[in-house]
Design a protein that fits this description.
By secondary structure, the protein is an alpha+beta fold. It contains four helices and three strands; from the N terminus they run H-E-E-H-E-H-H. The protein has helices at about 5-20, 45-55, 65-75, 85-95, and strands at about 30-35, 40-45, 60.
Length: about 100
């Protein structure tokens, strides 16, 4: 592959990643619970969160508040903070097939 072809492939990859950026409203309501006392588990659909929470307490927060809770827990555990876009992708990836 020539240098120019390689550069074009890199540009396509960057454009693809930018296209994949998620834009959810930061005030959107999400539901979650503390999973096994370690990390938070958040969902876009309340019923899905309730089904997975078992007997754990369910909380309702905005997407932005959920992101901050997740970030705080990651910091407490010595883990790297993720971007808000990655947090949104996780929420979207956890949807049931019927929600897509």
């Amino acid at each position: 592959m020539s240098h120019e072809e390689n550069r074009n492939m890199e540009n396509l990859d960057i454009a693809s990643r930018e296209h994949d950026l998620v834009k959810l409203d930061p005030d959107r309501r999400i539901w979650g619970y503390e999973g096994c006392g370690i990390m938070w588990n958040f969902y876009l659909v309340k019923d899905e969160a309730r089904n997975r929470a078992d007997d754990r307490d369910l909380i309702e927060v905005t997407l932005k508040e959920g992101y901050e809770l997740d970030s705080t827990r990651r910091k407490q555990m010595g883990l790297k903070r993720i971007s808000i876009e990655d947090f949104q992708r996780i929420l979207l990836d956890d949807r049931e097939p019927s929600e897509t």
